[in-house]
């Protein structure tokens, strides 16, 4: 495939996150933001005016003008939008995470992408955290992983469970690290403010023996986003996602003596993860290379997240039934 000198892109949906997609595309080399579309015309006009780009009243008009498209709309709209775009023009797509609201919708998207013979990248942005990249590139063979993602209550994404909103980030990272099938899961979760699960804890066992404990909350007083990875060869990684500080340790067993532990710490420079993420999408389209996060990987993360949520709901229902019947949990 010939290298495209300038890639003409469009953004569908310029809400809280979509406006940043549009902005980043105006800042990337070899990219021209052709325009934006949003069902809210006033919002589209506002962002278009701010970025000095056209806005389109009809999605089809934008699709006809671009080489690639970024879709940053509510998750439940992903499948219908992706299929409508690909039915009109077989162009590469970037979809924000999660890929869809259900596995059935995700399968519709993946089937349409395969039929169109085009590229799909999904926005699992934590993959582009430099600390995560360092752990993935270390050749780590995890024996145990612990991930915590706690956020204060906000006004965004409260129409979906915390597992699909927040925990899915860590599920995706864990699946990328372990690369083994799941053999068992035990999950607890509960609503706190919304009608959906707001706090959840999942214990995941993999066929290769790795164990993972994942906690997510959107009703915390403080923000905390950390992952710890224990390697089978005595390696240890602890990453603060937000500060990009990666602590590492190497344990060496010495016969007849205390273990020798060497420690180190790395801090990575601040870089907008979204810019790095969209840069890889642009590079994949221009160079014809595989996407950094494929639709199939996004499907696996969604599938696990939905199962975790199902188990959390099931556990909660069982607990409520026991309480209502007067039995001891």
Brief description of this entry?
37% of the residues lie in helices and 27% in strands. By secondary structure, the protein is an alpha/beta fold. It has an 8-stranded mixed sheet with strand order 7-8-9-6-10-11-12-13. Strands 2-1-3-4-5 form a 5-stranded parallel sheet, sandwiched between helices.
Write up what this structure looks like:
Helix content is 37%, strand content 27%. It is of the alpha/beta class. The protein is globular and about 70 Å long. Strand 8 and strand 9 form a beta hairpin. It has 9 helices and 13 strands. It has 2 domains: 7-118, Rossmann fold; 126-270 and 306-315, 2-Layer Sandwich (Dihydrodipicolinate Reductase, domain 2).
